[in-house]
Amino acid sequence: MEVEKIEGADSTPSGGLISTRAEDYGNAPDVEFLWAVKAMKYAENAFQVATDQRLYVTSSHEDDELFEEFEKAFKDLKIDVINTEDIKCEGAKEAWRDFCNKFEDKVKSFNFGTLLRMDSSKDYSAENTVLVPRAQFLAIEVARNKKGLNLVHYTHPTGQ
Fold it and tell me: What is the pLDDT of residues 92-115, one digit of tens each?
């Protein structure tokens, strides 16, 4: 199935398909497919930025704010290789929900499901990803960038 052939597939996070309550949809294959395509495109773009230092020159104000809040709330979280229990157990979910909600008006589509690499030294794969809200993804990836954890993927401007 091609994204262009899905009715309402546009550039909005929902692809224009979701205009009513989620409960009314169940597991609609078109919606799931569109989300998967958009999530993977977002992941590919984020990985390109993380691995090409020419694209990640400076931090934005939002990046700095995400990082500062992340460091306060999750200073002991190991981010090079994330243990799913550290982000998915009930207590962690509540802490992350509170964190993400702080960015509702600051991060576009702050709660949109986004693929996060569990091991920052590896590329995206089925075994190395977990679904998290976009604000959580951004906070962790900004922290990884600021701490140099994505440099293992750095591509030199000449391709070396």
Answer: 999 999 999 999 999 888 888 888
